[in-house]
């Protein structure tokens, strides 16, 4: 297994500025086609950069 993406949400507040489920929905990974996936290139990833106020998305590893 190889890591193709690592994304970290940083909050201004120690208690958080947004619930985790709301942030996890900002990153979406789907199959690019109906064929059987053989590689990470067979997936399409989209990131909704419209984050709640006080939240920052850090792309530590971004291979997609």
Describe this structure in words.
The structure is a single chain. The protein is mainly β and 64 residues long. The chain has one domain (5-62). The protein has one helix and four strands, in the order βαβββ. It has one helix spanning 20-24, and strands at residues 5-11, 27-31, 43-47, 55-62. The longest helix is centred in the middle third of the chain and has 5 residues, at 20-24. The chain is elongated.
Topology diagram in text:
Layout: E1 5-11, H1 20-24, E2 27-31, E3 43-47, E4 55-62
Antiparallel strand pairs: 1-4, 2-3
The string of secondary-structure elements, in order, is EHEEE
Contiguous helical run count: 1
Q: Strand order, main sheet: write it out.
A: 1-4
Distance between the termini: 15 Å
Shape: elongated
The total strand number stands at: 4
- Uncertain residue segments: none
Which percent range fits the helix content? Answer: under 10%
Q: Please describe the biggest sheet, giving its number of strands, its sense, and whether it closes into a barrel.
A: 2 strands, antiparallel
Number of domains: 1
The SS-based structural class is: mainly beta
Mean pLDDT: 92
Structure summary:
This protein is mainly beta. It contains 1 helix and 4 strands.
Features:
64 residues, two-stranded antiparallel sheet, mainly beta, two-stranded antiparallel ribbon
């Amino acid at each position: 297994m190889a890591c193709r993406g690592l994304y970290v949400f940083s909050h201004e507040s120690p208690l958080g500025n947004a619930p985790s489920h709301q942030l996890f929905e900002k990153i979406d990974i789907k199959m690019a086609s109906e064929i059987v996936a053989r590689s990470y290139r067979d997936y399409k990833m989209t990131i909704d950069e419209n984050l709640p106020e006080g939240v920052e998305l850090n792309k530590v590893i971004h291979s997609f």
